[in-house]
Write a structure and sequence with these properties.
- There is one protein chain.
- This protein has about 450 residues and is α+β, with helices and mostly antiparallel strands.
- It folds into three domains: about 5-175, Beta-Lactamase (2-Layer Sandwich), CATH 3.30.450.40; about 195-265; about 270-445, Heat Shock Protein 90.
- The protein is built from eleven helices and 14 strands.
- A five-stranded antiparallel beta sheet has the order 2-1-5-4-3. It has a five-stranded mixed beta sheet with strand order 7-11-12-14-13. A two-stranded antiparallel ribbon has the order 6-8.
């Protein structure tokens, strides 16, 4: 952090620098216009166009702006003032390359390297080698003049600082959006399910109190012999039943604890917060035993109470097969969300024999060459009986906050399917919906591990 004296000295130095620059009135107005409009344009593409428009409007010079594309780590043409010879998203010609200082090409272009803030370069959401963000090409330069070079060098510096700030702002906005999404994930997959602890503890307390009652009766028997052998047998049988119940409740709590621990570990990873997005931690696993079955067990009792049967005869998930390398915590939450939705929206149907049915089923199948020639996918399905989702809603159901008409007043945030979509896409897969006979199938397809 600078002291006030440091800042005062820095201002004096800048004042001297600008006197030496001796910019003309039109050059000063050009810089001020750039600063003003760069604050107005929030969209980065608008900012790129502004960068090439300033030389055109004030100096009647065309410009091309090349920017590093972080997805392919290469420079691409992102903005231009003319349409001759170069297509947007094309690579720069051989004579337009980053350089320590500005230079001219044989075609009378002035080439200026755009750099970011060196001290903050590692905070960008992508890697910028040597602080380089892009290249500005200004042309045609009729007469080479050191003063004009100096102006455009300073202009390129201002572009770099503004770009850097916009990238950081976009990164911060993305972080905030991610945190809001993560809060929704925590509420949906941790806080609400965690309320079931109340039920477990209530039932556990009831069984403990029953044991206390039996203990008192046994104490009375021991002190006063007020019960006969038949009474004792009844008490012992009741005690055995209560202890079995306690064991069952303890198993429920342990399963719930393991599941909540998995979700908490998955959602609160430091890497998520450092990068502002979900970061995978993958491993090879038994899909059925490690992911599907533990989540299904959480909902078996709720399905039973809702009159929903579970049909896994066609599950196609063999116990011995390792299906995919995945982030177990995220895919477990995907299944938790799918089973939660199935619990909410499964409806009774009448099949072709006239029989009433209300059930869910789950399974998997191979999606041959889904990701390209020789690149199979594995399609995982969770099906539930009921009315089909209307056609006009099918493209929207994975959008954040969207809830269809079939929600029928049921509680929810419209976040569950969005989470599924995001979690599957970072696995390199796709999530989707399809209307099938008797109901609705939600699925996801991820690459098959070789």
């Amino acid at each position: 952090m600078y002291t006030l004296d440091d800042i005062l000295e820095r201002i004096e130095n800048k004042k001297r620098d600008y006197k030496q620059y001796d910019f003309s009135q039109i050059e000063n107005i050009a810089v001020m216009t750039f600063f003003d409009l760069s604050q107005e344009f929030d969209n980065i593409d608008d900012f790129y166009n502004l960068c090439v428009a300033i030389p055109k409007v004030f100096f009647n010079l065309n410009a091309r702006f090349y920017v590093i594309d972080p997805k392919i780590n290469a420079m691409l043409l992102i903005a231009r003032t003319d349409n001759q010879g170069y297509e947007l998203k094309s690579h720069p010609p051989d004579d337009v390359r980053p350089n320590e200082s500005s230079y001219y090409t044989e075609k009378n272009s002035l080439v200026l390297t755009i750099r970011g803030k060196k001290l903050l370069i590692d905070q960008l959401p992508f890697r910028a080698a040597d602080n380089i963000l892009g290249i500005l090409e200004v042309y045609p330069i009729g007469e080479r003049d050191r003063h004009n070079e100096l102006f455009f060098e300073k202009y390129a510096n201002r572009i770099g600082f503004n770009m850097h700030n916009k990238f950081l702002a976009a990164k911060n906005i993305e972080h905030l959006r991610f945190i809001r999404s993560l809060v929704a994930d925590i509420e949906h997959n941790v806080i609400v399910p965690n309320m079931v602890y109340r039920l477990f503890l209530k039932r556990l307390n009831a069984k403990i109190m029953k044991n206390v009652e039996i203990e008192k009766l046994l104490s009375d028997y021991s002190d006063h012999k007020v019960y006969d052998d038949t009474d004792m047998e009844k008490l012992l049988k009741e005690l055995q039943e209560v202890n079995q119940g306690l064991t069952g409740e303890l198993e429920n709590i342990e399963k719930h604890y393991k599941n909540m621990s998995l979700f908490l570990e998955t959602l609160f990873r430091r890497s998520h917060f450092d990068h502002g997005k979900l970061i995978l931690r993958t491993k090879a696993c038994n899909m059925k035993n490690d992911v599907v079955q533990p989540q299904l067990e959480r909902y078996v009792e709720q399905f039973r109470k809702a009159g929903i049967s579970i049909d896994d005869r066609l599950s196609g998930i063999p116990d011995e097969e390792v299906i995919s390398v995945i982030d177990v915590g995220l895919i477990a939450q995907v299944y938790a969300n799918l089973f939660t939705n199935a619990l909410k929206y499964t409806q009774e149907i009448i099949d072709e024999t006239g029989e009433k049915k209300k059930y869910i089923s789950y399974g998997r199948e191979t999606a041959k060459d889904f990701f390209g020639n020789g690149r199979d996918g594995i399609k995982y399905n969770v099906f539930s009986t009921g009315t089909h989702i209307p056609n006009e809603e099918r493209e929207k159901i994975f959008e954040e906050g969207y809830r269809g008409r079939n929600t029928m007043g049921r509680p929810g945030t419209g976040h569950g399917l969005t989470f599924i979509k995001n979690a599957i896409e970072i696995h390199g897969g796709v999530a989707g919906y399809e209307a099938t006979q008797y109901g609705n199938n939600f699925y996801f397809i991820i690459p098959r591990s070789n």
